[in-house]
TrEMBL record:
<feature type="transmembrane region" description="Helical">
    <location>
        <begin position="243"/>
        <end position="264"/>
    </location>
</feature>
<dbReference type="Pfam" id="PF00664">
    <property type="entry name" value="ABC_membrane"/>
</dbReference>
<dbReference type="GO" id="GO:0016887">
    <property type="term" value="F:ATP hydrolysis activity"/>
</dbReference>
<feature type="transmembrane region" description="Helical">
    <location>
        <begin position="166"/>
        <end position="188"/>
    </location>
</feature>
<feature type="domain" description="ABC transmembrane type-1">
    <location>
        <begin position="34"/>
        <end position="313"/>
    </location>
</feature>
<keyword id="KW-0472">Membrane</keyword>
<dbReference type="GO" id="GO:0005524">
    <property type="term" value="F:ATP binding"/>
</dbReference>
<dbReference type="GO" id="GO:0140359">
    <property type="term" value="F:ABC-type transporter activity"/>
</dbReference>
<keyword id="KW-0067">ATP-binding</keyword>
<dbReference type="Pfam" id="PF00005">
    <property type="entry name" value="ABC_tran"/>
</dbReference>
<keyword id="KW-0547">Nucleotide-binding</keyword>
<dbReference type="InterPro" id="IPR027417">
    <property type="entry name" value="P-loop_NTPase"/>
</dbReference>
<keyword id="KW-1133">Transmembrane helix</keyword>
<dbReference type="GO" id="GO:0005886">
    <property type="term" value="C:plasma membrane"/>
</dbReference>
<feature type="domain" description="ABC transporter">
    <location>
        <begin position="344"/>
        <end position="554"/>
    </location>
</feature>
<protein>
    <submittedName>
        <fullName>Thiol reductant ABC exporter subunit CydD</fullName>
    </submittedName>
</protein>
<dbReference type="InterPro" id="IPR039421">
    <property type="entry name" value="Type_1_exporter"/>
</dbReference>
Length: 554
């Protein structure tokens, strides 16, 4: 998902994606209308100023014009403030919806996706944030920028067509210079954004793996690598700033030039000192009106230039986020699985992880009857876990077919709804032991909890802890032995009372006595279930109706 290219097709897809996200915000138009009203108020202010000056010295005649000026000035402040607020609210809304989509994508990544936790965190937090300025500032500024200068030009032309012509003439070279500066800015901004994403992702991943980094004394190496990534980001940020200064310098030059030319023209016209003939003679009121409006001609473009960096960041983020969304599993027409012990058929199944040359499992066939217990035995790396993961759609089905309860696996969307799974590295969530157990069945009664605690042999461990079931544990299962983590995972699986049991090395890390007790528990729990056990233990395999040995045939 890191490949950033700028082919026209990709650029179009990126723009479509961004438009969809911005439409989710839905308030860019409101902000644009307020910016246009701001321009209208600026014209009102200039009209009031010109009228007031023309009415001098009659105070009575000046008053309505002064009132128009005050009203327009106040309206400008209000419109500008409201435009900012409405834009920010639209951006918040769009980001919230996008974050929901990214979290859903993270949960439903295609089997074998290479996105790391750091990448996903960075996507959901920083990269989604990069959309903020695009929706809140850039889109309203661009839409208003396409109309507002022409409103100013039209109002100016009513008072002085020549002054309007001068303003328009400075616009053409200005647009050329801005297009060139924009191209350069796009490139450096993209590089800077990538460097930022790399740094954030790496930082989050290393923090998550801090105990491993410390255990291997790699903190200095990791700190140095993070330092290099930070230096790279700093260099690229300076490049972005350089380009930004150059383009804002060009903008200011043309804005100042246009105002200066209009001022010189109005002054010389008023004094009849123009060295060439012009088709108009200005009076003081019209000249002041034109002069007051001249800075407003470039104001929308100034606003657009200030928000241009937001567009670059959003486009780079869009490429990455759209690619990430592309990793989401294609939705399947999910056929609900019956809540009864299912038969499972693996028909010439091959599992090949993305980017791997060799298959983890090759042409594997097995027919498991409803209610049967099958043990998968075999050396490390022979594909036992992969077969269990395949049923949960955590591993890809590259060739062959799998049917569960007579329904093709692809149509069921995986067996998670009817399966209780004990993974090889039991996943623990930060919270209490009770919360970890209730994850499987939030409505479980205290009696159910006691039953599974007893069945999984968790009693003595809980008795040793003053807070018992409410003892806190962190996301790494800190403070628990490997065997205790496994028992919690087994108790959680038993609480689900599902008709399909998928057990991945449930007795690893247990001494012989504890293993015997757990095997007895599994024997009780599997009643009425179809059970698939991946194990290295011959004792555990012995309880199965059938033992399948993987990786042993020539
Ligand atoms: N996400 C993955 N991406 C790439 N290769 C993978 C992935 N998961 C597993 N593999 C590879 O697939 C092969 C089978 O792995 P698997 O975990 O299924 O074996 P196993 O029999 O369960 O091993 P063990 O007994 O050590 O748990 C191994 O070569 C492993 O390196």
């Amino acid at each position: 998902m890191n490949a950033i290219t700028s082919s026209p097709a990709l650029a179009r897809a990126r723009t479509r994606w961004l438009k969809g996200v911005a439409a989710d915000g839905g308030r860019a138009r409101g902000s644009t209308s307020l910016l246009l009203l701001d321009t209208g108020a600026a014209i009102g202010f200039a009209t009031g100023l010109a009228g007031a000056v023309e009415a001098v010295p009659s105070i009575g005649a000046m008053l309505p014009w002064a009132a128009l000026m005050a009203l327009s000035g106040g309206a400008r402040g209000t419109f500008a403030m409201l435009a900012t607020r409405v834009g920010a609210a639209g951006a918040e809304h769009a980001k919230l919806r996008l974050r929901r989509r990214i979290v859903a994508t993270s949960l439903h990544r295609a089997p074998g996706s290479t996105a790391t936790t750091g990448t996903l965190m960075n996507a959901a937090v920083d990269e989604v944030d990069a959309i903020d300025g695009y929706v809140a500032r850039f889109l309203p500024a661009r839409q208003a920028g396409a109309v507002a200068p022409f409103l100013v030009l039209a109002a100016t032309a009513l008072a002085s067509p020549v002054a309007a012509g001068i303003l328009f003439a400075t616009l053409v070279p200005f647009i050329l210079v801005m297009a060139l500066a924009g191209g350069a800015a796009a490139d450096v901004s993209r590089q800077q954004f990538l460097a930022l994403s790399r740094l954030s992702g790496r930082f989050a991943d290393r923090i998550r793996a801090l105990p491993v980094v410390l255990a291997f004394g790699a903190e200095d190496r990791e700190a140095a690598a993070l330092g290099r990534a930070a230096d790279d980001l700093a260099r690229r940020t300076m490049r972005v700033l350089r380009v930004a200064f150059v383009s804002s310098g060009a903008l200011e030059f043309f804005a100042a030039l246009s105002v200066a030319l209009v001022a010189v023209y109005c002054g010389f016209n008023l004094l009849h000192l123009l060295p060439f003939p012009v088709p108009e003679q200005l009076d003081l009121g019209r000249a002041l009106f034109v002069l007051a409006l001249a800075p407003e001609f470039y104001a929308p473009m100034r606003r657009l230039a200030a928000a241009y960096h937001d567009k670059q960041s959003a486009e780079t983020a869009a490429e990455r986020l759209a690619a990430l969304e592309g990793e989401r599993q294609s939705p399947v027409a999910t056929v609900p699985l019956p809540r009864a012990a299912p038969g499972i058929v693996f028909d010439a199944v091959t599992i090949r992880y993305p980017g791997e040359d060799t298959a983890a499992v090759s042409h594997f066939s097995l027919d498991i009857a409803p209610g049967e217990t099958v043990a998968l035995l075999g050396p490390s790396g022979s594909g036992k876990s992969s077969l269990l993961h395949l049923l949960l759609r955590l591993a890809p089905l590259s060739e062959g077919a799998v049917r569960v309860g007579g329904i093709a696996l692809a149509e069921t969307g995986g067996v998670a709804t009817i399966a209780a799974w004990v993974g090889q590295s039991p996943l623990i969530i930060a919270g209490s032991i009770r919360e970890n157990l209730l994850l499987a069945c939030p409505k479980a009664s205290p009696q159910d909890l006691t039953r599974v605690i007893h069945a999984a042999g968790l009693g003595p461990m809980l008795a040793r802890r003053p807070l018992g079931l409410d003892s806190p544990i962190d996301a790494r299962g800190g403070g628990l032995s490997g065997g205790e983590r496994r028992r919690i995972a087994l108790a959680r699986a038993l609480l689900k009372s599902a008709p399909l049991l998928l057990l991945d090395e449930p007795t690893a890390h247990l001494d012989a006595q504890a293993e015997a007790r757990l095997i007895a528990t599994i024997c009780r729990a599997r009643a009425g279930c179809t059970t698939l056990i991946a194990t290295h233990s011959e004792r555990l395999a012995a309880i199965a109706n059938r033992v399948i040995r993987l990786g042993e045939t020539a």
